[in-house]
Q: What sequence folds into this?
């Protein structure tokens, strides 16, 4: 069993043992062997849930996620053609060293948070405000975090950092893509959007000649098109963005992104749009909406564009970089020295102020929207 498989097994065990006491070995020898296995494991860390009651309340009472269905997504079933493992690694994500896993049913993603500055910010600063905010803002664009896992107890793997010590379980707004592909529908497009006007060393130093194309591809995408919305739809979208980013700015978060998904609307189902509709009106989504957890049509499940050509989903991701953390302070000092001594490129997205990043982020989001007045 490889590294990623062992990490996945640790995650699955933490999720599926809800409300259960871990079985104790039946003999002293078995207990000693289990202890040594834990202590000397490089990748299979013992994970526990952080604030499980808070996340369970969000799932049950605010997001209408059934406990049994949630756990079932992390268990292997015979129904899948290839009998896939319950968690599948889907690659490294960007420069943070994070890895992503997807459940076999594509409903949830698990992202590792290997940097202390990121998981400590979430657990110590943002977790309580996030839980309270998501409970009172059911249509928020902030990604829905369903669980937060952390390594517990001593082990060599934890000391050597051979396996991530923290993970978040997230709602997957790409849920339904594989089913659409099996039906022969056009593949979905997606973009991970951040303000492009910031200084990105990989792109801006020597015109990017010093960095490989693979590295540059990990930078933020650019959306060279428009989301065509009616004014009511656009105002709902902008209002959610304003409120969500205000929470992030108040807690010093920067460098978050807008994850945008676009799919073609099925022509056979695209009925003429009625005027004066908002995203909360079920008629804004064609008769066969994209697969997704049950809820009113929203930016999670799909909002139909005003021209009837596309259905969009959107979510705010990666809000774990905080300006007051040591790593962020060190990077800020380095970039200031770079601008003084070498070249005036300005701030990076991780060294700017939270309010300034928020304004550029909101401007970017407004620029990709085209409003149609009825």
A:
């Amino acid at each position: 069993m490889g590294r990623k498989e062992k990490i996945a097994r640790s995650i699955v065990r933490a999720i599926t043992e809800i409300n259960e006491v871990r079985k104790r070995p039946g003999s002293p020898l078995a207990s000693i062997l289990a202890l040594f296995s834990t202590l000397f494991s490089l990748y299979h860390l013992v994970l526990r849930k952080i604030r499980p009651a808070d996340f369970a309340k969000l799932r049950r009472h605010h997001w209408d996620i059934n406990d049994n269905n949630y756990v079932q997504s992390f268990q292997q079933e015979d129904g899948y053609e290839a009998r896939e493992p319950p968690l599948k690694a889907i690659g490294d994500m960007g420069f943070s060293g994070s890895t992503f896993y997807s459940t076999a049913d594509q409903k949830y993603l698990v992202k590792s948070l290997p940097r202390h500055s990121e998981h400590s910010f979430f657990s110590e600063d943002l977790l309580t405000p996030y839980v309270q905010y998501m409970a009172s803002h059911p249509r928020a664009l902030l990604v829905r975090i369903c669980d937060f896992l952390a390594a517990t107890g001593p082990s060599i793997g934890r000391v050597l950092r051979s396996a991530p010590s923290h993970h978040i379980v997230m709602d997957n707004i790409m849920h339904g893509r594989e089913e659409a592909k099996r039906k022969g529908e056009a593949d979905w497009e997606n973009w991970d959007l951040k303000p492009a006007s910031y200084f990105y060393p990989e792109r801006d130093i020597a015109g990017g000649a010093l960095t490989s194309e693979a590295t540059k591809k990990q930078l933020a995408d650019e959306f060279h098109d428009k989301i065509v919305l009616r004014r009511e739809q656009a105002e709902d979208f902008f209002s959610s963005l304003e409120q969500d980013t205000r929470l992030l700015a108040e807690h010093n978060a920067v460098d978050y992104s807008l994850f945008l998904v676009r799919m073609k609307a099925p022509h056979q189902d695209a009925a003429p749009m009625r005027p004066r509709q908002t995203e909360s009106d079920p008629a804004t989504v064609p008769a066969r909406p994209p697969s997704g957890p049950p809820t009113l049509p929203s930016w999670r499940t799909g909002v139909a564009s005003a021209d009837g050509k596309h259905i969009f989903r959107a979510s705010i991701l990666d809000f774990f970089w905080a300006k007051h953390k040591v790593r962020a302070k060190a990077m800020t000092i380095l970039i200031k020295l770079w601008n003084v001594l070498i070249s005036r490129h300005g701030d990076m997205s991780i060294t700017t102020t939270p309010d300034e990043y928020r304004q550029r982020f909101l401007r970017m989001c407004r620029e990709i929207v085209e409003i149609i007045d009825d």
Observations:
- Residues 116-136 form the longest helix (21 residues).
- The radius of gyration is 22 Å.
- The chain has two domains: 3-172, 184-372.
- The mean pLDDT is 80.
